[in-house]
Specification:
143 residues, mainly alpha, 6 helices
Length: 143
């Protein structure tokens, strides 16, 4: 029985020694919330997840409000024009976010005025003269 008590005492003393060492390691291994959040954001950016804005767009990750067909047509036209930021890597058609922003700015600044010329109104002289003779004020005659 004394032998068992001795073994228990030795086991408890080694456990307490390991427990103190574990606590020191835990304190050293603990990172601040700020560091953990920064690491998480870095990982999400690296994986391409989350709310981070894309640095490039392609046919699978389209800019907001653009259809796949529209993106392909626009990309083909910009590649023909040789505009910087519009590239092709293998089969992927890529555009940088800055080039897309310039494209949006260019499209929204384009003048969109309506035609100032009015369609000519065909004059029917016989009817206008008859209306005038009868004292009828027609809209055509008033012009």
């Amino acid at each position: 029985m004394s032998r068992e008590i001795g073994q228990r005492r030795r086991a408890s003393s080694t456990t307490s020694a390991h427990g103190a060492a574990d606590e020191q390691n835990e304190d050293a291994a603990r990172v601040s919330d700020e560091q953990a959040l920064d690491a998480l954001r870095t990982l999400r950016r690296w994986l391409g997840l989350g709310g981070a804005q894309a640095s490039t767009y392609d046919a699978d990750r389209l800019p907001p409000g653009v259809t796949r067909d529209g993106y392909h047509r626009r990309h083909r036209a910009r590649m023909r024009e040789g505009i910087e930021g519009w590239t092709r890597v293998g089969q992927a058609r890529l555009v940088s976010a800055s080039a897309w922003a310039l494209e949006v700015a260019r499209e929204t600044q384009r003048a969109r005025t309506r035609s100032t010329t009015a369609a000519p109104v065909a004059s029917n002289d016989v009817v206008d003269e008859l209306d005038a003779a009868l004292g009828i004020k027609s809209r055509r005659a008033a012009r």
